[in-house]
């Protein structure tokens, strides 16, 4: 499976989580007229009404912050956020033109592309941030454990998800088979992460997948964490949720998508400089205790960054192809890094001394 190569590629991706020394000056309100820099001139927007689809996850905080802090408004966009239950629903929303943008997990986004869906990844939304939890009685008396603790257990997960792919990568590395039996892990699939998590209330389910904020929520309710993907070498810096739109829409409305991306980049800057308010903004969409939100967002288990991180996503694609999740395909046709590149360039032109933007540019230049 070439695990070492894949792990190295993962490890080479987003280092943005360690960014520090942010400039606290606000973004300039001036707009560049240079079309090459693709700055947001509101008069040039092809459309101003945008529908953004997201999941019940703190991972999608860039959309929440951009909305609550007025960055979409600054860019001339009227954005409506709608919560969905699954990646399949988000994909259908894009293809039916009910959505203009969707935050979709990297694995389902890749499998949809491989099956002929004309959906293009044009930005990032989160790296890492998920794992598995187990009922406490199964780790009683143990001081530490790994994925092997799942042997002989019924594990709730979601098919065609990052969480499921990661579990299969770890099990394969340990030589643990999937199926029923004391030496195997029996994966029971549910339609959504919410359903998989709620299945823990059933006697027949022993453990479950969990993306943010379900991992922290589960821990607060007495469940034990089997692993967080950020702590597994094979899964280090794993691209999770991606910004996705139809290829046709990206071609038809380039200035509007540029404005959307500018708003998310501004939101990222805000999350680095205003942690307390970021948590409050998130709580308006994900109504759990603020301390749990803070753990998921700032606890070091995941990072929400708008960089498309193409290298990391390509490495993930190779991994899931080897798992048999999907057939191989030409991802270059369905990966657009120019929108992010141009949006970031225009913001740097307006704010040449901003350290957050400079660090984003440095990372993009290295890993485009």
Characterise this structure.
It is a single chain. A six-stranded mixed sheet has the order 8-9-7-10-6-11. A five-stranded mixed sheet has the order 2-1-3-12-4, sandwiched between helices. It has a two-stranded antiparallel ribbon with strand order 5-13. α1 (3-12) packs antiparallel against α13 and α14 runs antiparallel to α15 (355-367). The chain is globular. It is 41% helix and 17% strand. With 368 residues, it is of the alpha/beta class. The chain contains 15 helices and 13 strands. Mean pLDDT is 88; it is low at 1-40.
Low-confidence stretches: 1-40
Termini separation (Å)? Answer: 24 Å
Average pLDDT number: 88
Shape: globular
Main β sheet profile: 6 strands, mixed
Give the fraction of residues assigned to helices: 40-55%
**Nearest-angstrom radius of gyration?**
20 Å
Order of helices and strands: HEHHEHEHEEEEHEEHEHEEHHHHEHHH
Oligomer: single chain
Strand adjacency order, main sheet = 8-9-7-10-6-11
Number of strands: 13
Give the class from helix and strand content and strand pairing.
alpha/beta
- Beta-strand fraction estimate: 15-25%
The total count of helices amounts to: 15
């Amino acid at each position: 499976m070439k695990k070492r190569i894949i792990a190295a590629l993962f490890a080479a991706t987003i280092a943005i989580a360690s960014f520090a020394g942010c400039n606290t000056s606000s973004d300039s309100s001036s707009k560049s007229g240079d079309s090459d820099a693709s700055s947001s001139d509101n008069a040039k927007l092809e459309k101003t009404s945008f529908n953004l689809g997201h999941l019940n996850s703190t991972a999608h905080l860039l959309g929440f912050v951009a909305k609550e802090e007025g960055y979409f408004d600054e860019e001339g966009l009227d954005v409506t956020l709608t919560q969905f239950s699954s990646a399949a629903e988000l994909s259908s929303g894009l293809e039916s033109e009910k959505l203009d943008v969707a935050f979709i997990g990297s694995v389902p986004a890749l499998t949809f592309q491989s099956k002929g869906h004309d959906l293009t990844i044009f930005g990032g939304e989160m790296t890492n941030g998920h794992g598995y939890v187990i009922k406490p009685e199964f780790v009683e008396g143990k001081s530490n454990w790994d994925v092997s603790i799942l042997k002989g257990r019924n594990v709730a997960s979601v098919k065609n998800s990052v969480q499921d792919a990661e579990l299969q990568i770890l099990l394969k590395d340990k030589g643990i088979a999937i199926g029923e039996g004391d030496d195997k892990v029996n994966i029971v699939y549910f339609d959504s992460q919410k359903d998989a998590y709620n299945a823990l209330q059933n006697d027949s389910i022993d453990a479950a997948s969990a993306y943010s904020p379900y991992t922290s929520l589960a821990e607060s309710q007495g469940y034990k964490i089997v692993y967080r993907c950020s702590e597994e070498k094979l899964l280090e810096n794993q691209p999770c949720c991606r910004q996705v739109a139809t290829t046709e829409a990206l071609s038809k409305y380039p200035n509007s998508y540029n404005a959307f991306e500018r708003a998310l980049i501004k939101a990222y800057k805000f999350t680095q400089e205003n942690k307390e308010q970021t948590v409050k903004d998130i709580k308006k969409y994900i109504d759990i205790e603020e301390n749990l939100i803070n753990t998921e967002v700032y606890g070091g288990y995941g990072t929400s960054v708008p960089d498309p991180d193409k290298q990391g996503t390509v490495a993930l694609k190779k991994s899931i192809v080897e798992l048999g999740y999907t057939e191989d395909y030409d991802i270059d046709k369905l990966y657009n890094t120019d929108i992010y590149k141009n949006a970031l360039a225009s913001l740097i032109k307006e704010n040449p001394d901003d350290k957050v933007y400079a660090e984003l540019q440095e990372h993009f230049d290295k890993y485009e």
